[in-house]
Amino acid sequence: MSNTAKTPNERALFNGLVGSGAVLIFDGKGGMTRHEPDDDHPAVPSGGFKLVVGNSKGPEFKLWLKNELGEFNSGLVTAPTSRSRCSVLDDRALVILRVVRPGAEPHDVGRQFLTIWIEKSRVIIASELNILDFLGLARVEQVEHAPTSPADLIARLALRATDRLEPLIEMLGDRLDEVEESLITNRTERAQDNLEHLRRTLISFRRLVWPQRDALTTLEVEDLSYFSDRDRLRLREAALRTARIGDELQALSERAVLVHEEIIDDRAEQMNKAMLLLAAVTVIFSPLTLITGLLGMNVAGIPFAESGAAFWVVCAAIVGLGLIVLWVMRRRHWM
After folding, report:
1. Side-chain half-sphere of 330: how many Cα atoms within 13 Å?
2. C-alpha torsion 244→164→12→131, nearest 10
3. 235-290: per-residue pLDDT in tens?
4. Where would a tag sit more exposed on the chain, N or C end, judged by fewer CB atoms within 10 A?
């Protein structure tokens, strides 16, 4: 293979995204050879397996699937889906994994699906994702430690999917830190908006991670005849790493709940302060209002009604009474 850069069309064709796919044969010892779909392929070595990858929406690959698996099974492989899962049919398995689109922001997690059909000595992957680049198998001469079994291949796919998730999880943690910092600086309104957006993103991530863990665990415990103890150990490792990501998401969700409670408490404290201030103003002005109301009665006998200085005397008395009430309230720590 030439080391010169390929055009996008050549790259897609080489990686099986165009046409009827690409075929890789693994010897089970870390070696791999690539073949064209229409070529005569050598026999799969003992202990090895064949991998066929293709575009799940490509008409040529769909036709190949129908000829190879039959109409029912090919329909299972190419059917639209929204969740990771694992289904076992006799001694075969159908596994669906979800992968985060490269460069996606946490609030815009573009997802790509891997539909994987597993048989003894053969694995078929239907996806719009560039599988060979995803696994680091795009350049055959650089491959030294290729997957040794179908289960090892699935485990590597799951681990690569986890690798794409980890930076986004860290970014979510950083954004939650920013929300907590905004609370310290009394920017509660902004913190509330950011937190709501962050919690929606966490829910979306959890819907992605937990079903994937369950799918890997199901594949591990199913009694497929060609899975060795080492294969199940690899699948368990991938499931545990996925579960660890899920635990981190759960921890972030719990932190988000605590931050939400802090926001509620902060708003309640602000409301209490406002209500206390209003109550203090009411207490101060209630006796003053009573006095002015009595003096404003249109009846005979109002004291100092004929005195020219009465208005200023009453004003001074009202101010003095207000100051006395204010002093009493502050002394009793009511405000």
Report:
1. 6
2. -10
3. 999 999 999 998 998 888 888 888 888 877 777 877 888 888 888 788 778 888 88
4. N
Count other C-beta atoms under 10 Å from residue 58's C-beta: 20
- pLDDT digits 0-9 by tens, 8-65: 455 555 555 555 678 888 888 888 887 776 666 678 888 889 888 888 888 888 888 8
Q: How far apart are CA 163 and CA 156, in angstroms?
A: 10
The H-or-E segment that residue 35 falls in is strand 32-35
Tell if the pTM clears 0.85, that is, is over it: no
Pairwise CA distance, residues 48 & 68, whole Å = 20
Residue with tokens 């003095």: 320
Helical (H) or strand (E) element with 24: strand 22-26
Which tokens hold the place of 335?
């405000």
What's the rounded Cα separation, in Å, for the pair 179 and 182? Answer: 5
Whole-number Cα distances in Å, 309 to 72, 295, 312 = 104, 14, 6
Q: How many CB atoms lie within 10 A of CB 6?
A: 14
Taking the chain, what is the end-to-end CA distance rounded to the nearest angstrom?
82
